[in-house]
Amino acid sequence: MLLTRLAQVSQEVAATSARSRKVALLAELFRDAEAADVPIVIPYLAGRLPQGRLGVGWKVLGRPVPPAAEPTLTVAGVDALLTGLAQVSGAGSQAERSRLVGELMSAATDREQRFLIGLITGEVRQGALDAVAVEGLAKATGAEAAAVRRAVMLAGSLQTVAEALLADGPAALERLRLTVGRPVLPMLAHSASSVAEAVGKLGACAVEEKLDGIRVQLHRVGDEVRVYTRTLDDITDRLPELTSLALGLRGERFILDGEVIAFDASGRPRSFQETAGRVGSRTDVATAAREVPVSPVFFDALSVDDRDLLDLPFTERHAELARLVPEPMRVRRTLVDGPQDVRQAEEFLAATLERGHEGVVVKALDAAYSAGRRGASWLKVKPVHTLDLVVLAAEWGHGRRTGKLSNLHLGARTADGSFAMLGKTFKGMTDAMLTWQTERLQELAVEENGYVVTVRPELVVEIAYDGLQKSSRYPAGVTLRFARVVRYREDKRPEEADTVETLLSAHPGVKP
Ligand SMILES: Nc1ncnc2c1ncn2[C@@H]1O[C@H](COP(=O)(O)OP(=O)(O)OP(=O)(O)O)[C@@H](O)[C@H]1O
């Protein structure tokens, strides 16, 4: 497929507000696409770069190059060139990158140049586009939109489903059923401001402790065990203790959902950093496992004996879980019948906090498991509120922090897929974090202006703050009071960051 086609459709989709028109435009595009183009077309439309980072600065991109008169670039050709660009390293790499970018830009028409610059700098990310693409894909291939959505949920990626559908038609969806050994995206939770609000919304529910560890999905098929993270990375080899525990369970074929966490000798949770460090360490796993052993705590069962449990009510899934997994390996919970039992739920929250955990997740008993979604039937309640924001830029530090990228510019998502800066912070960072972020942010840099380095909006950081206040200095009309870094959230994509809208609705007293 020619890049010009994609650039034009992308422009038209952005220009129309009618969803049906967007769907029709995408359906037409998919009908014309080769299956092999799809893994490129889908991220490009959403403003994502499959290569992640290119190491190309604004200095290189901003240099005007006369556009080509005729469109000749293909989507596959551009992708190959960008892959080459991402791999350039060593002496003379800056010059080589410049040469490649020059080559690309001079082969691009005016429209293509604008599209490519937007893509490479990550200026506009159309997070909502994937949902429209699902409908476009259904329309293009004659599949049911709901069936495509479920397949995406189970396959964990729209691209996989799109390739299969375009190659083999609706019959391909059959292959994409829940299978032990193939991870699915986990169900996520919404927030509630109190246990009373959560129980009021859900009625009969389970109130479970919310452990601050790392989400894991555990698969067992006979003697084979696999462990996946929330982003579906295979971390089996890093957590050998999970394999032995799984092999000791009664069933032979199952998928369980839970959290791994490190406890200290007295049974209290160790810090999140310790658990995350352990789960992250790939070398000398044996020593790491001795120093920071982790335990799984399961809260859901997605498949047992090849029976797909996803559409069953939580009560029934939990009964399967209880049959397989003995008590100490299951999350602590209390069942409440509805708002009349709010006291009981509040006491459970208090006891959970007392034991050192971060809060509770309140779950409707009759709800199905909505893989990959923030289901309305799981509500988390945490006394300490934090925000997940995106790093837009960083400033070179001075004094003790000379040579380090320190002060972060923080952005929340806006309705149009861009990010609005909410403020800055250099507080809360450990030395290790400073070193890590300096390296990582330089890889994402697109422009350096004095001491401010602008980056592709890719990194999500969790921020604690004391309140919101009006400010004419920032685009959303508000800024954070005493923002400080809690941790980086590499498991989250920028599309999952908090929005200006949710922030404002959490602070009804502040009017921008
Ligand atoms: N009992 C539980 N049930 C479900 N999730 C739990 C539970 N205990 C801990 N968790 C963790 O909490 C997360 C649910 O919160 P959410 O889906 O909003 O993700 P999150 O944004 O990472 O949450 P947070 O930032 O609050 O940790 C799950 O991904 C899981 O890792």
Automatic annotation (TrEMBL):
One GO molecular-function entry: DNA ligase (ATP) activity
**Matching HAMAP family, A to Z?**
DNA_ligase
Cofactors demanded by this protein? Mg(2+)
Could you tell me what this protein is called? Probable DNA ligase
Instruction: Specify the species.
Output: Streptomyces fuscus
Q: Enumerate the spans annotated as ATP-dependent DNA ligase family profile domain.
A: 287-414
Q: Where does ATP bind?
A: 208, 215, 230, 259, 299, 374, 380
The record ties this protein, via Pfam families, to: DNA_ligase_A_C, DNA_ligase_A_M, DNA_ligase_A_N
